[in-house]
Amino acid sequence: MAMSFRNACYHILAPASEAHEYKKRSQLFDVLLIALIIVNVAAMMLETVPGIPAVWQHELHIIEIVSVLIFTVEYLLRLYSSASAPNRPSREQTTPWQKRWAYIKSPMALVDLMAILPFYLSVFVAFDLRILRVFRVLRILKIGRYSRSMQTLVTVLRNESHSLIAAISVLLLFTVIAATCIYYIEHTAQPDVFSSIPASLWWALVTLTTVGYGDAVPVTALGKVFGGLITILGICFYALPAGILSSSYTTQMQLKRDRFKDTVRSVLDDGKLSEHDVHHLEHVRALLDLDEEEAKLIVRLLQHHHKGLDN
């Protein structure tokens, strides 16, 4: 009985595409939890609007308590049911407690924990913990569990972490160089605006990013020439991380299409698609987060290609 309940919890709490026979209940749970997250984040934002807390303080407090209780039950159920997770050959997760420990260390579990921890710390710890309320915004990251696109973005960030760190390191180095140069160029003319190299970092940052707030601008001829040069270089340098991410994201999406094509080819070996094959392809499509029309087009093209080979 306990094993059956644990397995049911695991599949209902899993993404709907992985819930198997519990798919409808998993979809309902996903929708309800996403709605709760949105309501909770909206309530957190409304608390900062002048006048609203004084009128709706009781209602906002109830939303907070109910949300934390539900998130707590969700976290405990995920921890409990993680023992039913399938074994992965690459990891040692043979016992239920090893699987639970693996879940506790996972990024999404840490997000779940940080979403509820500030509330309990503020209740049980005597001193002021208002700074911990900032962590409440992490609750919006819980939506990432239900978004394949966001999971793809996380994969992209993980795969390109070394390239991104290298690009950001170059940007930081160039920002410091720009701040140092503008300080020595403009300090004599504007000692209040460019009072030090750290103070000049703000100008370097907004100029390199081509934001240009206008609160600090060079007035000397050399400073203006240098500022224009930095703006042009900033367009080039700050495009590096965006280019790395967009290229890797495109690669990840192409890998998903290739995996779906391989699956379609494998089920077309006998020359036709059975009802079981159609359900299997739909399951794979949902897992890969491919557009339904795009998936149908891939299937039709491969079917046409397969018929051409037979002829």
Automatic annotation (TrEMBL):
The chain crosses the membrane at residues 31-56, 62-81, 102-127, 164-185, 197-214, 226-249. One of its GO terms (cellular component) is voltage-gated potassium channel complex. InterPro entries: Ion_trans_dom, VG_K_chnl, Volt_channel_dom_sf. It is found in: Membrane. One of its GO terms (molecular function) is voltage-gated potassium channel activity. Residues 27-253 form the Ion transport domain. Keywords: Ion channel, Ion transport, Membrane, Potassium, Potassium channel, Potassium transport, Transmembrane, Transmembrane helix, Transport, Voltage-gated channel. It holds the Pfam family Ion_trans. This is Potassium channel protein. It comes from Alteromonas mediterranea (strain DSM 17117 / CIP 110805 / LMG 28347 / Deep ecotype).
